[in-house]
Each structure stands twice: as structure tokens, then as C-alpha cells.
Amino acid sequence: MGTIAINKTPTSSFDAGTPIGDAIVIFFLPLILNVPVITHEAVSRSMISAVISIFILKNLLLYPTLSIRFRDKAREAVAHVLGGSSPIANVLALFLLLFALADLRGAFNGFSHPFSFIGLAFLTFGTFVYGLTVFALNTRTTQRTFLLGALSYGLCAFVLANFAGHFLGVVANSGLEEAGPNKMLSWVGITKERIVFPFSGGLNNFGIMACMCFVAWALQFSAARTLVKKLFALGLAGVGLCGVVLTDTRGMFLVAALAISLSVAGSRFAGVRNRLKWLPYALPLVPLILIGMIESISYLGLADLFQREGQFALRLGLASGRDVIWKAVLHTFTSFDPIQIIGYGTYGQITSGASKEFSWVFLQIGGLTAASVHNATLQVLVDVGYVGLIVWIILWTRVFVGLQTCLAISANCPRRRMLVGLILVMMFSGFTEAGGTVYQADSFGIFLVLLAALVGYDYKSEDG
Fold first, then answer.
1. CA 449, 452, 453: angle at the middle one, nearest 5?
2. Over pLDDT 90: what percentage of the chain?
3. What is the pLDDT of residue 16?
4. Are 344 and 352 in contact (CB under 8 A)?
5. Residue 216: C-alpha distances to residues 153, 194, 410, 429 (Å)
């Protein structure tokens, strides 16, 4: 990956200091990106409000520090991205453009609000550009490490804020799904309902955020060198773990285990790093593999260990109906239609008619549903077609090149290892959710900032 050649000789106390303003914004980013849930506004207005809040807060806090020296850094950062030395940014920009155009098509089809196109553009491009400027302009390794630390604290604060809201009696958005029995707690003899927390986009959305909190601090625990730091990291990792357990998002346990183990092993063994680059090419096969695993577990009679209770849950099966959804989408693409080259647009599961086969999973018998298809790759396929799928795979291959580089030198920098782990969480969460896509705007915004950090990171800098 290319790097920005910038003179790192401090010219002022701010140069040598930490980017406090940006760190504050990143700390609150998980909550800012959940403005649609907190305010109960229309999605398009909330998306714009979230991004505007980011820029206003950033500019107010950093305004006294602005000077001519930022002009040179900004020029070099732009040349770094637009000059082709940052393939992640280039491919991601193309991917975001495809999704923005898909949303515009969805508006014309009547399946999304006309102004949601503007909101989506602000959310995606705005959040990524903000993150890119933060990590490109703060060029010292200590600054970037500080910013990543702010994100890990922000994820923990987001989970704790939801805990506090729940225990204070704040009611979640009535449009979110109803909770059912908590299967994981039943394994240890505790009977309790799953909790829908008030400041998140639902059970699965919160599960992803809590999983990121757990992974971030578990990786910092593994790299901590003193007992105090280990206990501190262990406590904050426990906060994220509690969030996963209380929402009963069982798949996030496996996601966390994979992300942590690959991050640690990849930083220690070159063989693991070199093999990771092949993982993105398997993304189109993941739904087929998971369908096969689900059917095998059911055939062996082991489904009762994981399946939720109740008559409707029994009908949904082991994966809560996800295999039904995936089969419906795949069935749609067995018959070729030219529109499939560019996809059906936002909510393509409606336009294509695929949701007619799985709407009953969401208690909408015989109708249509805008619920995601619960797999990021299939969601990309149905919305932006084969073109989007190719761009999606290329994006992940570019990302994994950056992850390999980051892992190669992360042994002495736990927060770089954390960066890798969080990006892996986004990939693996996309196996059973629409993680890494605009259908989960909160975690998607975090994903964009993580990619911006990967793009902006100067890997040749000395670890701080």
C-alpha cells in the first residue's frame, strides 16, 4: 500500500500533541450514527443530521487549530487517494456510487423516499471522507493510535449507554422486532427475554456493535503487558460480551472467535497472513456453505441445541429462517434477466419478487418485505447486480492486502491488531446479516471509518 510522504518534524505543540477534536467525534460516532433510532425521525433526515453533526462538531472543536500548514497536508492526502496509490479508496468510492445509484433507482420505483438518495450520499461519502481526512492529516503514529483508541472507547460507551437507557426504562423504537426467549441464557438455566435496547437499530444491529466492542478490547487484552491494563481491557471486553448475550445474537460469538483468532494468528504467523488473501474470493460461496451446514446439523438431530423455542421458531428452523431467505434469492438468479447485470436497485428483494417467497419469515404472509436478505454478498447481488458483486469482491481483496500489511507489523501495536479485528468482524457479520452495507447504517458508518483508517495509515511509520 502506498504511503503519504509527509515531513513529520513537529512545527508546533499541536503537531506533537493528540487530535483531541477528532477523537471526541469518533468517540461519539456510534451514537451519532444511531440518530435515526434515537430521534424517531424519517431515515433520510436523520442520515443527513448525523453527518452534519459530525462535521459541525469537528469544525467547532478544531477551528482554533486551523492554519496554512493543514493546506499542504490536505494537498498531499488528496494526491495520495486520487493518484491511484490508494486502491481501497478508489474501489470503495465506486462501490458507494453504485449503491447511491441503486437507492436513486429505488426511489423512482417507489420503494424508498426520493430524499433518501441525498441522505445516503451524505452518510456514505461524508462519513468516509471525514474518516479519510482524519487519518490522512493526523500523520503521526501516536495520533492515529489515539484515534483508534477513541473508537474502542466509543463502542464501549455506546453499549453502556444502551444498558443505562434500558434499565432507566427508555422504550425502544416501536418499529423494531419483538424479543423472544433468550436461548443462550437458557443454556445456563436462566429464563429471560431477549432485550431490544433503546438506542440501536434492533437486536442484530446492536449485536454487531457489541461484538465489535468485545473484539476491540479482547485484542487489547491479549497484547496488554501489565496486570492493570489486562484487567481494564478484560472489564471493557466483558461489557461487549454482555451485550451479545443479552440480545442473544448467537452468531456474533462465532464472529468474535474468528476475528480474534485470525487477528492474533495473523500477527504471529506469516503463513496465516498469506492465506487470508484468498478469503474474499469465497464470499459468493458462503450462503451455499451455510445452507449445507444448517441442513447437516438438522439432519444429525443437533438443531434443538441452538433453535429458538416456540411453534413459529420451529418452523423457521435453526437459522431463524435465513436459509429460506437465501434460497429465495438464489432461486431468483437461477433464471437470467438482463436487469441482474446492474441489479434491481435498493430493496431489490421487493423489485425482483424474491421477498414473496420469504415474507412469511417476517410475519408478512403473502406480501412483500423490505427486510434485508441477511447476507451482505447476496444483498449486494440483488441490489447492484453482477457488476456490484465483482466490485464488492475486488474491494475486499484490496482490503485484505492492507490487512496483511497491518498484521505484519502489529505485534507491538495492539490497536493496529484491533483495526484488523474490527474489519474482520464486519466481513464475518455479513455472512448472516447485511453487515457492511447501507442496510445497517450504524455499523456501516463504523466500517467506513475503519477503512479510512486502513487507507490513511502510514505503515512505514515507527510504532508509537
1. 90
2. 25
3. 37
4. yes
5. 9, 24, 14, 15
Cell of 256: 468474535
Q: Fill in the DSSP letter of residue 234.
A: H
**CA angle, 368 as apex, 364 and 370 as ends, to 5°?**
100
| Residue owning grid cell 462501490 | 95
Grouping H, G, I as helix, E, B as strand and the rest as coil, residue 19 is coil
| 261 alpha carbon, distance to own chain's centre | 19
Q: In which residue are the cell numbers 490487512 written?
A: 403
CA distance 373 to 250: 18
Closest C-alpha to 453, from 224, 151, 70: 151
CA quadruple 388, 391, 393, 396: dihedral, nearest 10: -130
Angle of helix 376-408 versus helix 441-456 axis, rounded to 10:
30
Instruction: Give the number of other CB atoms < 10 A from CB of residue 185.
Output: 16
Model confidence, pTM: 0.85
Q: Which three-class secondary structure state does DSSP give residue 343?
A: coil
Q: Is the pLDDT of residue 330 over 70?
A: yes
Can you tell me the distance from the alpha carbon of 45 to that of 65, in angstroms, rounded to the nearest whole number?
A: 31
Return the domain boundaries, the chain.
18-283+372-456
Average pLDDT over residues 336-353: 88
Contact 343, 382 (CB under 8 A): yes
Return the DSSP state at 373.
-
- Position 130, amino acid: Y
Distance (Å, whole) CA 304 – CA 318: 8
Cell numbers for 246: 443479552
Q: How far apart are CA 161 and CA 170, in angstroms?
A: 11
Distance CA 45, CA 37 (A): 12
User: For residue 377, which amino acid is it?
Assistant: T
- Cα–Cα distance measured from residue 206 to residue 443, given in angstroms and rounded to the nearest whole number: 9
Contact 36, 51 (CB under 8 A): no
Q: SS in 3 state form for 20-81?
A: HHHHHHHHHHHHHCCHHHHHCCCHHHHHHHHHHHHHHHHHHHHHHHCCCHHHHHHHHHHHHH
DSSP 178: P
For residues 223 and 145, give the distance between their C-alpha atoms in angstroms, rounded to a whole number: 14
pLDDT (tens digit per residue) in 160-193: 999 999 899 887 665 555 567 787 787 777 878 8
How far is the C-alpha of 28 from the C-alpha of 158, rounded, in Å?
8
For the chain, the average pLDDT equals 77
User: pLDDT tens digit string along 389-435?
Assistant: 999 999 999 999 888 888 877 655 778 889 999 999 999 999 988 87
